[in-house]
Amino acid sequence: MSDIVTSAAPAGQSPSPTVRPLVQQGDILPQLSLARPGGTLRLPGSGNRSTLLVVVHPRCARCASYLSEIADIVADLRDWGTSLIGVVPGSGSPAAQIFPVLGDEEDAARLRLGIGGDQAAVILADRWGEVFEVATFGVEHGFPLPRQLVESAKIVDLSCGECNVAGPEWRRAEG
User: Fold this and answer.
1) Pairing of strands 120-125, 101-104
2) Using CA atoms, how far apart are residues 59 and 40, in angstroms rounded to an integer?
């Protein structure tokens, strides 16, 4: 079964892809392929690290600022076994980053994750690909504070997937 649903189209037109339901806590991340220089990154990964995906709005200065802000916590996230990955529409960020900012050609990852075109999202999945926490944001950009992301990564790293430990509640940042 495909994760991308097509909507009915008027006669003579092709159906257009629509977003599947948003991934929820407890779901397994769908298989994703993201463009990067020199190849493609496939998620979920090898099962050695948790993954924090930050999916941003297209051409959005506030989202770009958030990606710069969370670059300061990359080392802390790594200490707690978490890889940080930014996901941007198109072919990705040409500039070298302290963490990968990868392209989402034709919004394929956004569609598979269930993120609408007018939404940004932060998704934390454990080393097995199980979604631990997901939050979406519209134009208000109420992203979690960087310290909240580190605390969540710590909880995921220290928790046992079989214990059904509930995820943290990310409070939206002001501004």
Assistant:
1) unpaired
2) 22
Across the strands, what pairs with 35? 40, 103
Residue range 12-52, pLDDT digits in tens: 544 445 557 889 999 998 888 787 777 777 777 666 789 99
**DSSP letters for 18-53:** EPPPPP-TTPBPPPEEEEETTEEEEES-SSSSEEEE
CA distance 146 to 66: 9
- Report CA 40 to chain centroid distance, whole Å: 16
Q: Indicate the pTM of the whole model.
A: 0.78
Q: Kindly state the tokens that stand for 12.
A: 């003579």
Q: Which residues, 6+ apart, have CB-to-CB distance to 125 below 8 Å?
A: 29, 44, 50, 51, 53, 131, 132
CB-CB neighbours of 93 under 10 Å: 17
Cα distances (Å, whole numbers) of residue 94 to 39, 88, 153: 14, 11, 27
